[in-house]
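As a warm-up, study this chain.
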Amino acid sequence: MSVDTATPAYRCSCPSRKFPCKHALALLLLWARGQAADAGGETADFAQEWAKQREDRAADRERRQSGQQPDPVAQAKRLADRLALMDAGIADFARWLTDLVRTGLAGARNQPYSWWDGVAARLVDAQLPGLADQVRAMGSDVHARTDWADHLLFYAGRWWALTKAWGMRDQLTPDEFADLRVAVGWATATAEVQGTPALPGPWLVLGAHRSDDGRLQQQRTWIRGPGGEVAVVLDFAVQGQALTTPQLAGAELDVAVALYPGSAPQRAMFTTPVAPRGLARSLGEGCSIAQALEQESVAVALSPWRERYPVLLSGVHVSAGDTGWLCDGSGDALPIVDASLDSLLALTGGYPVDLFGELEEGRVRPLTVVVDEAVMTP
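Now compare it with the structure written out below.
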């Protein structure tokens, strides 16, 4: 791990949900007591690399604030260094996947969490945080889920396809490469998106969802533009910080929106102040469950790394079960996830309603329900 005592800033590969973690606090405590000196002439390679990255980012910020153009030679070198590091990380991850399949998936369930976390830590060091998060989550999923074998097999196949796609990234279209970047955790700079043409409103808020893994809070807000395009606005906050105030489901917003690169539905950001203009009585025309699954299949064919897909279902009713089901008039059904069955039944009364949610791993996460021309959040 590394600690910058001047900023301060911390970097640790442990899975702790606290920031700073106990390792950073222990190192700072030793330093405050004089039992750990500042790094002198000899520093670990990973710490040197982290410090150099922080210096480069700080220098770039200063140049942008002063109106200076970044050094293209330095930028090209940083990009080449990062790609080389990521290439090595992907190659190491592919070898690990090969060993995982060769020894059998059943053996993976008997491994301690530290085994998964070690792989994730190497991915973080290789600047592949998106993959690292998935591996860490799998370390818990194989013990918590009853369908852990199918779940692990599915992700092992996705990870293997990702390693192959990374090796042929020069042959991908810009949208395909943008989706791949998201999957491995290579973020697109906000400044790059702000410079693209913005789409005017009004934009309709379809629904929102918040999650908190203890280290990072995330808020997803799904919106639809006047041309029917659906996008998602992502907001993040580390522990101790407050997330952006969520937009009300069904609200129409006068705001300009810029889209991140990638296949639809794309990530979006607001580029002008948000001005609510009223509430809608409907979210628009929905579809059946079969049509929603077909739409998801088309989207996944374009971007195999997609984890969730927005769906607006029409005429579905809530049915009781283990966690509840959504059923339509054709007899098709989808299980419900991350929702209170009692609340859904109380809102809908068991009658057919329009429902907006996220389709993820064959399950629906309800976000918005339309009952008697009233848009509500369950």
